[in-house]
Amino acid sequence: MFTATLDTNTLWPSLRRDVLLSWAVEGLYRPVWSAHTLVELHYCEERKRVRRGQSPDEALAAADRLVTMMGEAFADAVVPETDTSRLAPFGLPDANDEHVLAGAFAAGAQVIVTDNDEDFPAALLPHGIAVVSPQVFARDTVSVNPARALTALEQMAQRRSETPLALILDQIEARYAMSEACALLRDAL
């Protein structure tokens, strides 16, 4: 199965995370991430919730639930630190991104999905790993099987208190510039 490493900035916006992980549940690809990615995600989620008015305890509990749910839904997604820590640094411009590339390499991922492509210069990537934006990844994932991708979003709409599918498509297009993926999904309706 096609394996994609999802960077923290890809997972953090909750709607985009839900879309991408819904496609993974539907079997369109296998998501992986480093344990450090979950630490970053937890931190970002907790801070966001505090900024939005939740108490620190409520925000911590919500961030804990998110990371726990992701771990339960994708038990094989975390690349163990022992695998990534044995690898030599790749020399990325931002040393804080080494865990992302090390995790992708250790997991045999074909792509790293990130908004920070400049932090992953092609010349430093191991053979067989490419870096793509979430928009390109969404388009490519939907194009594999638009009907299954649509089914995943229909199920997501039901989980989101029956949010209309058309509204979800409008939101992911407007918020995350996933126009090409949305066009494929609308064609599959």
Task: Write a compact overview of the structure shown.
The protein is α/β, with parallel strands linked by helices and 189 residues long. The protein has 10 helices and 5 strands. Strands 3-2-1-4-5 form a 5-stranded parallel β-sheet, with helices on both faces.
Description:
The protein is an alpha/beta fold. The protein has a domain at 3-134: 5'-nuclease (Rossmann fold, 3-Layer(aba) Sandwich), CATH 3.40.50. 60% of the residues lie in helices and 9% in strands. The protein contains ten helices and five strands. The protein has helices at residues 8-11, 14-25, 35-51, 56-73, 81-85, 98-107, 134-144, 146-159, 165-176, 179-188; strands spanning 3-6, 30-34, 78-79, 111-113, 130-132. It has a five-stranded parallel β-sheet with strand order 3-2-1-4-5, with helices on both faces. Helix 3 runs antiparallel to helix 4 (56-73). The two termini are 26 Å apart. 34% of the residues are buried. The model has no long low-confidence stretch (mean pLDDT 93).
Describe the secondary-structure layout:
Elements: E1 3-6, H1 8-11, H2 14-25, E2 30-34, H3 35-51, H4 56-73, E3 78-79, H5 81-85, H6 98-107, E4 111-113, E5 130-132, H7 134-144, H8 146-159, H9 165-176, H10 179-188
Parallel strand pairs: 1-2, 1-4, 2-3, 4-5
Descriptive key words:
5 strands; Rossmann fold; alpha/beta; about 190 residues; five-stranded parallel sheet
Beginning-to-end CA distance, first to last residue: 26 Å
**CATH-defined superfamily of one domain:** 5'-nuclease
Uncertain ranges: none
Which sheet architecture does the biggest sheet show?
5 strands, parallel
Question: Can you name the CATH architecture of one domain?
Answer: 3-Layer(aba) Sandwich
Order of helices and strands: EHHEHHEHHEEHHHH
Helix content: 55-70%
Strand order of the largest sheet: 3-2-1-4-5
DSSP E strands, number: 5
